[in-house]
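wait is this the right file?? whatever heres the structure
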């Protein structure tokens, strides 16, 4: 990795952190905000540099294959790897018991497979429920109207630690449109998890990406998933 690339990554990371702090200062609800670097297609060397030299603590992968390929290098450097993409049941064995947090649990079938793998390994797994806040057919996640019932169903899995909720807003042109979805997500989050907070070590709401993380923080997000604002535009296969 060149010195110029290191400087670019450092500057981008620090700029994002400054914007996170500014957005936190503008919101009415308290609490810290975690930056998760979305590292899809990003070389492990670049992620390791941000961990070792810039202070990054948390990153997330969308695909099980990349998660496995980068896991040892990232965790040995001191980073935590979450899984943030759609997780197929046949790929759970690569992730369960290893990811810091699985952000995308959206079916009883998937939860049951996480439970089975964790039982086999003597492990537990922290998860978030993914809610499809835009009711988009092209996206995964439980529908908002079904979220509370789904959370109750997860109570029977003793190897799963439910930690909160994740959502992805639809593509929007204006901040006001993002805010509408984030505000609704926060309302659903409070309705469900205010009753359960005494049973959860740290209740988390994960929402907001490179195009919307400042709005998401102002509307109550605890984790923002930022990729291109740190690493630049990427070409996905």
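ok assuming it is, sequence goes like this
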């Amino acid at each position: 990795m060149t010195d110029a690339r290191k400087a670019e990554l450092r500057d981008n990371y620090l700029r994002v952190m400054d914007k996170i702090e500014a957005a936190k200062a503008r919101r009415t609800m308290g609490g810290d905000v975690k930056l998760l670097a979305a590292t899809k297609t990003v070389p492990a060397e670049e992620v390791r540099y941000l961990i070792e030299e810039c202070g990054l603590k948390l990153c997330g992968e969308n695909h099980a294959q990349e998660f496995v390929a980068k896991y040892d290098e990232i965790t040995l450097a001191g980073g935590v790897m979450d899984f943030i993409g759609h997780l197929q049941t046949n790929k759970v064995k690569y992730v369960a018991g290893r990811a810091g947090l699985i952000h995308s649990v959206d079916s009883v079938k998937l939860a049951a497979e996480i439970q089975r793998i964790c039982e086999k390994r003597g492990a537990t797994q922290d998860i978030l429920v993914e809610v499809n806040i835009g009711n988009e057919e092209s996206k995964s996640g439980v529908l908002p109207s079904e979220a509370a019932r789904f959370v109750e169903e997860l109570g029977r899995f003793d190897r799963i630690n439910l930690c909160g909720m994740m959502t992805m807003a639809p593509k929007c042109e204006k901040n006001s449109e993002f805010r509408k979805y984030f505000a609704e997500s926060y309302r659903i989050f409070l309705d469900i998890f205010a009753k359960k907070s005494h049973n959860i070590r740290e209740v988390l709401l994960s929402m907001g990406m490179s195009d919307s993380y400042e709005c998401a923080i102002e509307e109550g997000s605890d984790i923002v998933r930022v990729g291109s604002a740190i690493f630049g535009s990427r070409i996905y296969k």
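The first helix runs from residue 3 to 26. so i think its the right one actually
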